Amino acid sequence: MQRSSYAPPPAHSPPLHHPVPQHVSTVPMMRSPPPPQSQSNSNYGSPYGGQAGGGGGGGGSFVPGFGGFMNDPTAQMGYQVGKTALNAGQEMFEQNVNRYVSIPALKHYFNVSTPYVLRKLLLVLFPWRHRPWSREQRPSSSASPDANYYFLPPRDDINSPDMYIPVMAIVTYILLSTLLAGLRGAFHPEVMGLTATTAFVVVLLEILGLKFGTYILSISNDSQLLDLVAYSGYKFVGVIVTLVVSEILNRGRGTGGWAGWTIFTYTFSANAFFLLRSLKYVLLPDSSSTHPASGSMHTVARSQRTRRTQFLFIYSYIVQFVFMWVLSRQDSNPTQAKTAAAKIVGS
Q1: b/e for 174-200, b at 16 or more Cβ within 10 A?
Q2: Are strands 137-139 and 149-151 parallel, antiparallel or unpaired?
Q3: Contact 321, 328 (CB under 8 A)
Q4: What is the pTM of this model?
Q5: Could you tell me if residue 252 is left (phi over 0), alpha (psi between -120 and 50 degrees) or otherwise beta?
Q6: CA 81 to CA 224: how far, in whole Å?
Q7: What distance in Å separates the CA atoms of residue 295 and residue 103, rounded to the nearest whole number?
Q8: What is the pLDDT of residues 205-221, one digit of tens each?
Q9: Can you tell me the distance from the alpha carbon of 112 to that of 168, in angstroms, rounded to the nearest whole number?
């Protein structure tokens, strides 16, 4: 079988023809959109930029009317009803709160400054050589000789009681106790709740005791009761110092031992001395004061003065000792702490 001979290519190949498009399409040039024009109509806030092309080649525009919402009579009526209800609720809240606590009076106790807070903390911890203990006063706007005199706010008088330090001290005490329990390995999920409950129960019992004491001693002025409540919270400053210093000296073994009791004795003595000197001008006002403050009782009967002196001593030493001991007691044994917590949770 013979192989056919190879045929040579033609001398001239046929010309190549490129396909010609039948439908000519133009590609638009990509340009940045023009800046939005300020319009006075209701296009503000529209997510479509004021225009939206209609589907299927429609040339209509969609412009939501969000800007004219408040011009609707129904919306205005709803706004007025909501505003009236809000004002009524706020007024009712203030009336109910003012039955028990005067909001303007509370603002006086939180009128503090940073220098005052630092000086007050030093006074609570080192009250031994402080003089004088009397509170400063200022006359009212009236220039008459019989004008009433008012106590200066805490930021202007270091002897004035405040509620800022007690509130911050309570919060610090709760967080610090939880932190120290974790460092000793005695942390459990209920420790913060138990610590906060203990602190709030102590504060509540003390306020109830002060309320009962003011009733027995015939103290009907609300400002004097608020002064007693403010002074009752300074014990937490001494408790915090006891916890921190005892933890350092005892190397994580709690507030027990000679070091813990030494620090506790000092902080308790400083707090008792501070309360004894400060509350003397609340429970036993000086009848010879040149400018007695408005609302304070200038004269106290002899029998009433004796009872107030006994109340002042019992409150400053006995009551404060019990409450400070309860607050500063820390269990240094992790196993016993967890066992006690398990018993509390199980019960």
Answers
A1: bebbbebbeebebbbeebbebbbebbe
A2: antiparallel
A3: no
A4: 0.65
A5: left
A6: 42
A7: 17
A8: 998 888 888 888 877 66
A9: 13
The phi, psi pair for 149, rounded to 5°, reads: -115, 140
* Pure H helices in 126-234: 164-183, 191-216, 222-232
Residues forming beta bridges with residue 138, ordered by sequence position: 150
CA-CA-CA-CA torsion sign (204, 208, 214, 220): positive
Counting beta carbons within 10 angstroms of the beta carbon of residue 282, is it exposed (0 to 12), middle (13 to 18) or buried (19 or more)? buried
Among the listed residues 116, 127, 207, 225, the one whose alpha carbon sits nearest the alpha carbon of residue 170:
207
- Measured CA to CA, the distance from residue 264 to residue 249 in angstroms comes to 13
How open is the CA angle 309-280-97, to the nearest 5 degrees?
Answer: 100
Three-class SS state of 140? coil
The whole-angstrom separation of Cα 311 and Cα 308 is: 5
70 close to 83: Cβ distance less than 8 angstroms: no
Phi, psi of 133 (to 5 degrees): -105, -5
Residues 6+ apart with CB under 8 A from 250: 256, 257, 259, 260, 332
Give how far Cα 315 sits from Cα of 82, 257, 279, 319, Å: 50, 27, 10, 5
Give yes or no for residue 334 having a pLDDT over 50: no
Q: How far is residue 179's CA from residue 171's CA, in Å, rounded to a whole number?
A: 13
Tokens 């609707």, located at residue: 72
CA dihedral 207, 209, 210, 214 (to 10 degrees): 140
pLDDT in tens, 241-281: 999 998 888 876 767 788 889 999 999 999 999 999 998 87
Q: Which residues pair with 139 in a beta bridge?
A: 149
Query: What are the residues facing 150 on neighbouring strands?
Result: 138
- Residue 6 half-sphere exposure toward CB, CA atoms < 13 A: 2
Instruction: Say what the pLDDT of residue 171 is.
Output: 95
CA dihedral 200, 324, 333, 343 (to 10 degrees): -40
